[in-house]
Design goal:
Helices cover 79% and strands 0% of the residues. The protein is an all-alpha fold. It has a single domain, classed as Chorismate Mutase Domain, subunit A (Up-down Bundle). The longest helix has 37 residues, at 3-39.
Amino acid sequence: MTDDLDALRAEIDAVDREIVDLLNRRAKLGLAAGKAKAKSGLPITDTDREREVMIRVAMANSGPLPQDALLALYRQLIETIRRLEEIEKSGSRPA
């Protein structure tokens, strides 16, 4: 391998660690929002808010990720956080 490739791979590895940290931070915030919704008697799912998030994400995307791919990632993220909220609400722990 070349030094250039090694350097690129090292940078990719560092960015991956940042992404994991940010995804976990995002999940923690989503869970906190879920707790706030529960205290207020609101349902876990808020389709209006989810639509707003998707619009903001789409507007923030300047590429090169295709819009549909990015939005698919966010749909999965939102669904995963929703499942975590439901698990917390029921008092169960994820496997």
